[in-house]
Amino acid sequence: MIPESLKKELQARVASAITSREAAVDVMKELQRHYGWLTDEAVVEAAELLGLSPLQVEELATFYEMIYRRPVGEKVVHVCDSISCWAMGGETLLAHVAGRLGIKPGGSTADGMFTLLPCACLGMCGDGPAMMIGEALYGRVTPEMVVEILKANPGDACAPPTTKEE
Q1: How far is CA 115 from the centre of its chain?
Q2: Rounded CA gap, 28 and 11, in Å?
Q3: What is the homologous superfamily of the domain 75-151 according to CATH?
Q4: Which H or E run includes 99?
Q5: Are the beta carbons of 78 and 118 closer than 8 angstroms?
Q6: Which of 35, 64, 74, 134 qualifies as a FRET site for 113, CA 20 to 30 Å off?
Q7: What's the mean pLDDT in 65-92?
Q8: Contact 129/140 with Cβ under 8 angstroms?
Q9: What is the pLDDT of residue 54?
Q10: In angstroms, how far is CA 45 from the centroid of its own chain?
Q11: 80: nearest Cα among 133, 29, 156
């Protein structure tokens, strides 16, 4: 259950939107921030706040890849797999990040710190390959930069396993 203060804040955002659907992503992201991911309970809460059915919220949630319908790590690492990033080495970058974290794409580290997800586009086509951790975007990422990027994130007690690639 969301705190009353958050509920009132979200109700105000919905009220200021032209339509409730306009506020849907914002509401889902705030509930996701609160719970760590968009739980089934959060889908129902979002539906009530937005005046939509839970199915309508579910449809929206599953459309956006930055809305997580399953538990994720504290830090979600997105590696762009668009054609632009792929052409600039995105596939190699994804494999390197996976190796560095010791997980496969779609997986989470055992300590719950990181989840690695490929994504369709980060909007950095001119600076590929790109990755994002939380809200921080990184472009022209080389395998050598990955360790520093992982260590640079606030609250990170990151000591990923060493791999033969280093």
Answers
A1: 9
A2: 12
A3: Glutaredoxin (3.40.30.10)
A4: helix 90-101
A5: yes
A6: 64
A7: 95
A8: yes
A9: 98
A10: 20
A11: 133
Going by C-beta distance under 8 Å and a sequence separation of 6 or more, which residues neighbour residue 121? 80, 82
Record the tokens describing residue 83, joined without a space: 């054609």
What is the residue extent of each domain of the chain?
4-63, 75-151
CATH of domain 4-63: 1.10.10
Distance CA(71)–CA(129), nearest Å, equals 26
Tell me the residue type at 60: L
Look up the pTM and report it: 0.83
> CA 85 from chain center: how many Å?
18
Amino acid (1-letter code) at residue 142: T
What is the rounded (10 degree) CA torsion for 62, 67, 68, 69? Answer: -40
Task: Give me the residue label for tokens 């951790």.
Answer: 133
Determine the Cα–Cα distance for residues 85 and 130; give it in Å rounded to an integer: 7
Termini Cα distance of the chain: 45
Burial 62-80 (b: 16+ CB within 10 A, else e): eeeeebbbeebbbbbbbbb
Q: How many CB atoms lie within 10 A of CB 24?
A: 23
Is the pLDDT reported for residue 33 higher than 90? yes
